[in-house]
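Pasting as-is:
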Amino acid sequence: MPVFDTIDGIVISVFSREHLPPHCHAQYEALIAIRTLEVIAGRLPAKSLKKVIAFMSREENQFDLLETFYQLNPHINRI
């Protein structure tokens, strides 16, 4: 479980052997689509989700998350 970053105690992780759409895990509580910032599964408290979305919205973080996702999941074609 590669930890990508931690935001106020919320662990942002990207896993291998995953599925589309490209996503990250926020403290094992939520799966969030990297490009659309949509919560795919799970949930976070509103305050925590707002912090995670703000972090993921930064262009450089979004790029790095996508790169990490595809490096860990080479079987998935880039979209």
